Amino acid sequence: MAFAEKYINPFTDFGFKKLFGSEPNKELLIDFLNQVVLPEQHRITELSYTRNEHLGAKELDRKAIFDLYCIGKNGERFIVEMQKAKQNYFKDRSVFYASFPIQEQAKRGEWDFQLTEIYTVGVLDFVFSEDAHEKEVRHEVKLKDQNGRVFYKKLTFVYLEMPHFTKTEEELETTYDKWLYVLKHLPYLDSKPKALQEKVFDQLFAVAEIAKFTPDEMNAYEQSLKYYRDLKNVIDTAIMEGETKGRMEGRLEGEMKGRIEGRLEAITESIIKALSRGKLTVEEIAEDFGVSVDFVLQIKEEQRP
Fold it and tell me: Do residues 231 and 257 touch, judged by C-beta distance below 8 A?
């Protein structure tokens, strides 16, 4: 397949993991965390990737799959996720995911319950309903008391609402600005912008160039991109139809998105169960649920350990 874009879309599963999820490219993730997430006094110089799959009480229903899960040199835990579309109970899910790095620090025998810092980072391709009229990009959340004082400083949630980032290349001032700019605009660029002079961006653009992919990487990216576009098309179509009927103004737009995304999530979960039973072929599953074979194959690929 010939791609119109020169660089990958980081909001695809393949694109995000290509940039940030492999050992050769972990310097990109380290710089991203240092510049965008962590306070200056907590900067990291090393991290290691670990398994990104944790099982809850029910293997299928409570399977929590993070985009990336890694541990810093001093034991800090990082959950880093690219979120393509809004989901019901997104904040509940973030808290649920954060519970796994807490539980896994438990030690057998004598233990004083001391924990290391945990950061849950969400790079969001949407805005929260309550923030629709705000223009704040970065949200940092900690556990606080009724007077606004931090009660517990080792659990931090950082959300980046990318639609609110509107700076142009000429307005980029900090490395933080540049990271957000490149994540939002990467698939629409023809070359590395002059404003991005830091060496880390030289590496990022080299890694992101589609023409350098192997045939297997090309195929994997094609499937991942199709999944991403299918999801976006479902949401965009629902919005357009709702607007035509005059029912998609303001708050109703978010409600319609939630219903469509909830239905897509339910279909995805049903496909996962069908795949786990192993009684039907991929083609039969696609026909049963009214989706493309590529859609089922993408889900199947994402379930592999």
Answer: no
Q: Which domain holds residue 245?
A: 215-302
Asked whether residue 8 is assigned to any structural domain, the reply reads no
Domain-embedded: residue 7 = no
Number of domains in the chain: 2
- Separation CA 289–CA 280 (nearest Å): 12
Give domain status of residue 57, yes or no: yes
Ordered DSSP codes for the chain: ---S-SB--TTSHHHHHHHHSSGGGHHHHHHHIIIIIS-GGG--S-EEE---EE--SSTTTT-EE-SEEEEETTS-EEEEEEE-S--TTHHHHHHHHHHHHHHTT--SSS-------EEEEEEESS--GGGTT----EEEEEEE-TTS-EEEEEEEEEEEEGGG----GGG--SHHHHHHHHHHHGGG-SS--TT--SHHHHHHHHHHBGGG--HHHHHHHHHHHHHHHHHHHHHHHHHHHHHHTT--STHHHHHHHHHHHHHHHHHHHHHHHHHHHT-S-HHHHHHHHT--HHHHHHHHHHT--
Torsional class of 75: left (φ above 0), alpha (ψ -120 to 50), beta (otherwise): left
Whether pTM > 0.70 for this model: the answer is: yes
Instruction: Report, as an integer, the average pLDDT of 263-278.
Output: 81
The per-residue pLDDT for range 73-107, each reduced to its tens digit, is 888 999 998 887 777 778 888 898 898 888 888 87
User: Residue 164: its pLDDT value, please?
Assistant: 92
| In a shared domain, residues 94 and 193 | yes
